[in-house]
C-alpha cells in the first residue's frame, strides 16, 4: 500500500526528507507505541498513519510496541483489538510485535546503573508528600530527606522492592536530577513503583514496574528507533527523555519530535471518558458506531482509505490548530463511498402505494447498474409490482410550492421506472394515512411524458419482493462542539438523546445478499453499512455511516 500525499502540511515528513537528502539519516525507524488500556480512537489513527506512513514513504521500518507498564489497567483484549485496528487500516509492522515488558530485565539493570552512579535513590515519601515536596510552577521543590542515601543502601532497598518485600506506595525509585529545575518533570521523577499485580506478559515475575518516562526512551534506544514521534503534551518531557539517554549506556540515541494532537469537534478522545461511556452502558461497547474508536468507525461504515485520507487532509504541524471540523471526516468517507459503494433503494418510513391500473399478478424486472459510473459492479434486478412502498416523507397532502414529490393529483417518477399520479388518499378512522392509490403512465418508461414536465423522482421498493431491514440512524454522540471544555461540568450533560434512532425499513431484493460490513449508498438517503455483528440473512441490520449532504465540500467551494 502506498501512503497518499497531499498539499497538507507535514513538517516531520519535510524534516526527514531534508535529513536524507543531506546524508544525516540513512534508514529511518519509527514506532507506534500504544498503551493496551483501551481501544484506539481517531487521534491514534493520526499517529498510526504518520508513523507507518513515514516508514513507507522513506523505505524504513515501523515497529508496533505495546507500552505495557501498568498491568492493573491492561488487558489482552485491548492488545488484540489494537493489532486488528492497525492491520485493518492497511499497515504492517516490521518484525514481531514488541512489548516494553520485553525489556524489563534491561530496564532494571539500567536502574541499578543509575543508583550505582549516584543518580537514583529509593524514596520513602508517600505519594502526597512527593507531590508536596515537588513544588509548583512558581516555587522550587525541596529535596526528599531520603535523597542522600548511599548507593549500597539504595541497591539493597531496590532489590527488596523487586522481591515484593514492601507494600504498594511504601517506596519508589526516583532519579536524582534537580529539585529546583523550572521543568517539573526534572524534579527527581519516579522511575519505579511497587505494584503487586500480575502482568499479562510477565506473570508474577515483577513486583515493581517502571514509569512511562523511564521506559519509553530506553525502549526506543533498544529498538534503534531514529525518530520518536509523539504529541505536544510530551514536549516538556523531552529533556527527561534526553537525560536518560545521556546517563545510560544505551545502544542508540533516538530523537523525539512532537506534533499537535487531533482535536475533533463533537467528539471525545479521552480514554478515561470513553471507558466511562462503555462501563455505564451509555454506548454498546468500545465498537459502538457512535464511538470515535477505530473499531466503532469501522462498524459504522468508515473505510481504511477514508480514515487515511482524513489524516492526510488535516496535516501534521506543531501548532495547535484548535478543533478540526468533523465535516472534514465525513467528507473523506463520503468521497470514498461516492466512488466505491454500490447503489440500492431502501425505504426508511414505508407508506403503501397501490397502482390501480396494474394487474395483481403483474411483474416487471428492471436491470439497473450497480453504480452509475462503475461497469465492474454487477447489475441489480429490481422487480416492479402492483403494490409498492415509498417513503412517507415523499408525500404531502398539502405541499408547498416547490415540493416536487408526490401529492394528491400530482405526478412523480419512480426511479428507474414509470411516472405515477396520486389519485386517492386512504385513511383510517383516526385520520392517519394508510395507503395511496395511484395510476401508472405506461408510456413513460425511460422517457418523459408527452406535453408535461415531471420534476420529482422518488425511490421505492416492491411490497412483495422487498426485504425487511432494521436501520440504525446514528448521529453525533454529543450536542456541543467541545463536550469536555468545562472541566468543572459533567460532560455527560451534553449527550445527544437522538444519537441513535432505529427504524424498520424495506430494501430492494439485492440487499438480501449483503455481507457483514458491505457498504451501500441508499439512493436519496445516505450511505449505510451492514452491521458486522447484528446482521444475519434472516435479520438485516444497516448502520448509517453518513448522509448525502457534504457540508465540507460546500465550504471549500465558497472559500
Automatic annotation (TrEMBL):
The keyword Transcription regulation does not apply. It holds the Pfam family tRNA-synt_1c. A motif ('KMSKS' region) lies at residues 268-272. Keywords: Aminoacyl-tRNA synthetase, ATP-binding, Cytoplasm, Ligase, Nucleotide-binding, Protein biosynthesis. Its main location: cytoplasm. SUPFAM superfamilies: Nucleotidylyl transferase, Ribosomal protein L25-like. It catalyses: tRNA(Gln) + L-glutamine + ATP = L-glutaminyl-tRNA(Gln) + AMP + diphosphate. L-glutamine binds at residues 67, 212. A motif ('HIGH' region) lies at residues 34-44. ATP binds at residues 35-37, 41-47, 231, 261-262. Belongs to the class-I aminoacyl-tRNA synthetase family. Monomer. HAMAP family: Gln_tRNA_synth. This is Glutamine--tRNA ligase. It comes from Halomonas sp. H10-59. The gene is glnS.
